[in-house]
Amino acid sequence: MMFAVAMTFIDQTIVSIAAPDIVSELGLSASGMQWVVNAYLLSLAAFFAVGGRLADLWGPRRVVVAGTLIFVVSSAMCGCVPDGDHALTWLVAFRATQGLGAALLFPAALAVVVAVFPIERRGRALALFFGLTGALTAVGPLLGGWLTTWTWRAIFWVNVPVAVVALVLTALAHISDRRRDEPLDVKGAVLIAVGMGTSVLGFQQAAAWGWDSAATWACIAGGLAVLYVFCRYELRTRHPLINLSVFRDRAFTVDSLVLFFAMLAFVPVFFFASVYAQVSLSASANQAALYLLYFFVGFAIASQWGGRILDKRGARPTLKIGCVVGAVGFALWAGKLTDLSMHDQWPYVALAGAGIGFILAPASTDAVNRAIDASYGEVTGITQTVRNYAASIGLAVFGTVLAHTMTDNVVDTLRKRGVPPDQVDSVAEDVTQSITGQADARTPTGDGPVATTMRDAMSSIRMDFAEANQWVFYGMAVALGIGYLCALRHPGGQAAGAEETPAQSPVHH
Description:
The protein has 509 residues and is mainly α. Helices cover 80% and strands 0% of the residues. The chain has 17 helices and no strands. The chain has helices at residues 2-26, 30-58, 60-79, 87-116, 119-148, 154-157, 159-172, 186-209, 214-236, 250-279, 285-313, 315-336, 342-369, 376-416, 421-438, 449-456, 458-487. Helix 12 packs antiparallel against helix 13 and helix 14 packs antiparallel against helix 15 (421-438). The longest helix has 41 residues, at 376-416.
């Protein structure tokens, strides 16, 4: 199962590293490239709950196989995108179906792992699961940097051999398929997909449309309204897609809230840190990948430590430790961004990763341990929906903050260098779009006064970008600070646990 979900973790980071080459070859706009990244996360957020429920109804093994096949076919098609006017549509469409495959695959795989281990060993087992799969996420940037030197298309094709091995291992594992004879709540599935998709669309497009745009707020408010209708409907239907009564458990609710605020930082940090490294630090794609590797060193170590604390003392201590360590790490990291030195930043990058590592596995495990009637797939679907919804919102909101701050900084820089007032705003917006959309800081060509000024100002613009990123990373620290306030509400103690299923019995032999 770890091998199967490795593809989905790698794919969250590998595309950001290859962004400049994709944009250059296909001629995409900055907002278009943002959609290539966001389409995957948007699809994950919209369909995770469905994936978790299908794992319960059809059996986790079937859903793992189906999700793997959808994911790998979509990956191959992403790598085969043709040049021309339809390139963006092709790439975004298959990135979305990739997200659908991952949404089916991940909750089913996690449900298999949970069902095999008894509750007293589950913390360490899932710490290993999340720790190693999280470490595999670090392979994404490294692999992306190496493969991109050959062709950026290889970042999608690399999933094919991984999927083949995952399918062979799944067949060899002889996973039992425990199914429920209940109907799928189709109406609920449509409502949550529309609600999640529409609200996240509003957040994602806020940078392009503006926060004062009626379309932005229509999407956000409309999506949230649909989600409210979904909740009301789920409370009345006999076989709901999501059993909302699980939120009556205060510990489960706190676990979900802490995951939400942690994930505002966790997935977005890959995109923002890799672009910062390539623009402000003038790092290559491979160097940017090594920069992110510091984060995963802290993450992997803390995941194992957090799993042991969970098994011995419950989730509350590790959630509190993780939020504090993460908030301090991101705040110190933010303060060092303007030093423009990778060497000076690595302790704080690792500290930020450790904070997330303490949170991710214990919060997810504690939530699953509180599953109703051992419905691991369903509860995993809930927690993963929360996580990916938060990741989409984090990318959108922090992306907007970065774009606006960067534009203001570049305007000030160009005004000081004498660029005509009637050109300052448009030039600054072009600079911001090119940098935030494709991790590109190539020196402008041409001999006009603006191009000449831009060439002279490149070092200042790199510093402008570092200063703009400080606001983003301080925002991530604040998110984890709010997570700490939520963690204080956790009742503590161990979950009572669901009753043992046949899938668990081999552990005791």
